[in-house]
Design goal:
513 residues; alpha+beta; five-stranded mixed sheet; three-stranded antiparallel sheet; 14 strands; 47% helix
Length: 513
């Protein structure tokens, strides 16, 4: 649950218990509900339970609800030898582990013997999903409001203090604010070409003890004067442990300091929408489409109160600042989106695009790419599909509809009511729709919206249009629905991801007569 992208689904489950008095039985019941929906998956399970989670990625909703009997089986056969302060050992402590980070961020407050209390921003985050359970217990999930996730984490991260009543650490700063302040200073320094900070410099931010942005900026400048942009790992680790922390911290694994911690840090900063990746992921910088919002954060959150009481800190985190959401983002135009996509085609060669698409198709390992690994799988599939088409068929106009930062890197999937990627090839139109959904969920949530999007696409561009539909696999019921809509003149060409890769490697055109 330290991964921020998992929180929204867990909160969707917890929201059903908002206002109920928390005790051991309720805590266990709530964890049982996360198991029922496939969001938490203990190791010992029956073949029937495995089938209900087949091809559903870890941390996401399963394909089918577990029965009461199956939930009880999972709880009985997977005892939790876990203890959290204030909670009984076992599943009550597991409940705390799952939801503590959401509590720290001001989304939901809970303590034994008191009602579970969602904040307005936590309620918004829990509303990202619309989840429907069909008569056959299959689960349909639609990310109806993807923008709520960015809003919630922006709200949380511009206030979130390293040293707070929930987490006892020596560092005393607001990480997002410190990062924004230092990036401003570096971008104003003509010596550094306005690229931001390097990944190798991020451990300095993570270990920095206070909120003195000027001192951190000067330390980075001194580091660059001596080593330019490429200090050794040993130099960075020595600065963090012996200079910044004055040798008072325990030893850390080099990989944790230089890789694991920076990766977690980038995910948390980037989910706010204020941060861009540049130079193939080597640099972390301001997203200049959000300059007005960045200035607002710095003007209003650079100084902050300190707290010793958990509830007082939660109330501060939970207090909504609607001004954060009313500031408008600079929108990327279709022509700009095309131009930015062309730049990424130059940056990411076909062999990498192909390899990353295969990772999404097989779902057997995670991306290790310095940029792509920070993009959630559904968004990554949209981006890689657009890249793949432009890479292999450069004459095709490719207009992605996902929201993106000032580099063209997507921040969320295409909004509701529009198709994913619009392609124009001579007099023909091709709407490309992609999904990570498989099985029944794919059939129920994708085909009818695709038909509507294709009709709108034809009205916008040309009646001579068709749709390419991509997914890791194509479910048999989806094929039957696709055959049905063809009778209305709406041609949908379904491809498993790996088949579409092969198509692009051999076909002269995207449009198929």
């Amino acid at each position: 649950m330290r991964n921020p992208q998992r929180i929204k689904a867990m909160l969707w489950v917890l929201k059903k218990f908002d206002g109920q008095i928390l005790d051991n039985n309720l805590a266990t019941k709530i964890v049982g509900e996360t198991i029922r929906y496939g969001l938490y998956r203990p190791t010992k399970k029956t073949e029937a339970i495995k089938a209900k989670w087949l091809n559903a990625p870890m941390g996401e909703f399963g394909n089918e609800l577990l029965t009461d009997k199956e939930v009880q089986f999972m709880i009985k056969n997977n005892p939790q030898e876990h203890k959290e302060a204030g909670f009984d050992r076992g599943y009550p402590s597991r409940f705390a582990t799952i939801f503590d980070f959401a509590k720290e961020l001001g989304f939901v407050y809970f303590t034994p013997g008191q009602p579970i209390e969602f904040s307005p921003i936590g309620s918004k985050l829990a509303s990202v999903f619309e989840v429907t359970v069909q008569d056959d217990n299959s689960i349909s999930v639609e990310e109806a409001h993807p923008e709520y996730e960015q809003q919630a984490f922006l709200h949380a991260m511009c206030k979130s203090q390293r040293s707070n009543p929930f987490v006892k650490v020596l560092n005393d700063n607001v990480p997002l604010v410190l990062l924004l302040q230092v990036l401003k200073k570096i971008n104003e320094d003509s010596r550094w070409n306005g690229k931001g900070v390097t990944r190798k410099e991020l451990p300095l931010f993570i270990f920095w003890k206070d909120n003195d942005a000027e001192a951190l900026y000067q330390r980075i400048c001194a580091l660059r004067k001596e080593y330019r942009y490429n200090p050794s790992d040993e130099v960075i680790i020595d600065i963090c442990l012996n200079e910044i922390m004055e040798g008072k911290m325990k030893k850390f694994q080099a990989d944790s300091v230089m890789s694991e911690y920076p990766d977690e840090y980038i995910r948390k900063m980037r989910i706010t929408g204020l941060i861009s990746l540049r130079g193939g992921g080597r640099f972390i910088d301001l997203n200049h489409n959000e300059d007005e919002r960045i200035d607002y954060v710095l003007q209003n959150y650079s100084t902050y109160p300190r707290f010793h009481d958990e509830k007082a800190y939660f109330d501060y985190m939970a207090e909504a600042d609607e001004n954060l959401f009313t500031i408008e983002t600079i929108q990327v135009s279709p022509s700009q989106s095309e131009d930015l996509l062309k730049e990424w085609v130059k940056e990411i060669e076909w062999t990498i695009i192909k390899q990353e698409l295969q990772i999404l198709a097989r779902q057997t390992k995670n991306s290790q790419h310095q940029v792509l690994k920070f993009i959630p799988a559904p968004v990554r599939l949209e981006f890689l599909s657009a890249l793949a088409i432009k890479s292999k068929l450069p004459e095709v106009r490719v207009i992605p509809n996902y929201a993106c930062d000032d580099t063209g890197l997507p921040t969320s999937t295409a909004g509701g009511g529009i198709g994913d990627i619009e392609c124009l090839e001579k007099a023909n139109g091709i709407l490309v729709e992609v999904t990570m959904a498989e099985g029944r969920q794919q059939t129920m949530m994708e085909i009818w919206p695709i038909e509507r999007h294709l009709k709108q696409f034809k009205e916008k561009y040309t009646p001579n249009s068709q749709c390419v539909f991509l997914a890791p696999t194509i479910f048999s019921d989806s094929l039957r629905q696709i055959a049905f809509v063809k009778d209305d003149g709406n041609i949908i060409r379904p491809y498993p991801i790996e088949e579409f890769i092969s198509y692009l490697e051999t076909a002269p055109t995207l449009y198929s007569a």
